[in-house]
UniProtKB/TrEMBL annotation:
GO molecular function annotation: ATP binding; phosphotransferase activity, alcohol group as acceptor
Coiled-coil stretches noted in the UniProt entry, renumbered to this chain: none
Transmembrane regions: none
GO biological process, one term: amino sugar metabolic process
Pfam families: AnmK (PF03702)
Protein name per Swiss-Prot or TrEMBL: Carbohydrate kinase FGGY C-terminal domain-containing protein
InterPro entries: Anhydro_N_Ac-Mur_kinase, ATPase_NBD
Stored Gene3D superfamilies: 3.30.420.40
């Protein structure tokens, strides 16, 4: 992402006071940025734009209210207008997936349980996927003989890398390039970690639940910096304390709302997200569940850094087919399932619709399309 756009987005998130004109401009700017990225990607890999049937864009999420105060509505805002992407590429584009989820009473996140379940489900072993992005998300997929993807459940556990990145920036470091510096060799302030675990309202809320960087971003980083500073801890100590709070909150959530320590210790734990590069977080998880089998999401054939892209592409295809995605068992509302995403028709819109109707069987409707039960990733030769 161009540095100026990244800077503008971070400024909006930090100030939480962007005027409508700026939001409108950034929405269009992100649409142009995504369209340019698609052209660059296609040229790099020898793909003709005209051969692309459909684009699925998750946008740049800047705010998400999954559990609003009484009298307000669930809402979100993602930057990156789909109509701009469609216009600049000529390709039909599906975007804005979260709004449809929220409209029927769900929280708008997490969004990838179905993809994760299809790729990871196992005949006899519990699968646990932990995604440590800006926020951490966890998904439990029971073995097929105990329900498999029909019994999976997920939620946002709380902090991920957002507050650590915020602290890096506040201390004058670049979170993208300074992860290997001595700033990571700090001492954990356990008093602060225990205080946060005991007092954090979100952590003691039962799933289903979702959160965002509004809670575990700049504000939380500022709070922890203050708590550690009052106790005389250094910058490196503060960042170590944030990392420990992240891992401790994940562990706490798994034990509070998961299937129990014994089941987790005998599970396959699959990880993805930028937090995988934080050695302290990984070590803490492995020490807590020493008998679990740890691995990377890469083992599915989908690289960790492509998981979201594949997920949004899959949801775009399902939207075009008019097929609602199954939802986790702990969702606020199991029915009605909903077809997520907004369509911005491209140049070959009628052709794509014809393909979709042909695939689904004329006159059958989405209820006539069976759910996908297996997803096979073909490795490129």
């Amino acid at each position: 992402m161009p540095s100026k756009i990244r800077t503008d987005i971070l400024a909006m998130l930090q100030e939480d006071a962007a005027p409508p004109s700026m939001l409108s401009q950034m929405d269009a700017e992100m649409g142009h940025t995504f369209a340019n990225a698609i052209h660059i990607f296609a040229q790099k890999h020898g793909i003709a734009i005209d051969d692309i049937d459909l684009i699925g864009s998750g946008g740049q999420l800047i705010t998400l209210t999954g559990t609003p105060p009484r009298g307000q509505h669930r809402s979100n805002m993602c930057l990156g207008e789909g109509a701009v992407i469609s216009a600049k590429t000529g390709v039909t584009t599906v975007s804005d997936y979260r709004t449809a989820e929220q409209a029927v009473g769900r929280q708008g996140a997490p969004l990838f349980a179905y993809l994760v379940g299809l790729l990871l489900h196992h005949p006899t072993r519990l699968q646990i996927c932990i995604t440590i992005g800006g926020i951490t998300t966890i998904c439990f997929i029971p073995p097929d003989n105990k329900g498999g993807i029909d019994a999976m459940y997920d939620w946002d556990t709380g902090p991920g890398t957002s507050m650590i990145d915020s602290a890096f920036r506040r201390f004058g470091y670049d979170p993208a390039t300074d992860q290997g510096t001595a700033v990571l060799d700090g001492k954990v302030c356990h008093e602060v970690v225990e205080q946060l675990l005991a007092s954090d309202e979100y952590l003691h809320t039962r799933p289903p639940k979702t959160t965002a960087r509004e809670i575990y971003g700049d504000a939380m980083a500022h709070r922890i910096i203050g708590l550690c500073g009052l106790r005389g801890y250094s910058r490196a100590d503060t960042i170590a304390t944030m990392a420990r709070f992240t891992s401790a909150s994940i562990i706490q959530q798994m034990l509070l709302y998961g299937p129990g320590r014994e089941a987790i210790n005998n599970a396959d734990i699959v990880l993805d997200g930028r937090g995988m590069s934080n050695k302290q977080i990984m070590t803490d998880l492995q020490n807590e569940f020493p008998n679990a089998s740890f691995g990377s999401f890469d083992k599915t054939g989908v690289p960790c850094n492509a998981k979201k892209a594949v997920g949004f592409a899959m949801q775009a295809m399902e939207a075009l087919l008019g097929r609602a995605l199954p939802v986790p068992t702990n969702a606020d509302v199991r029915r009605p399932n909903t077809i997520t995403g907004k369509l911005a028709p491209g140049v070959r819109w009628r052709e794509i619709i014809e393909k979709s109707v042909s695939f689904g069987g004329a006159g059958r409707g989405w209820e006539g399309l069976p759910e996908v039960r297996e997803l096979i990733v073909k490795q490129k030769a």
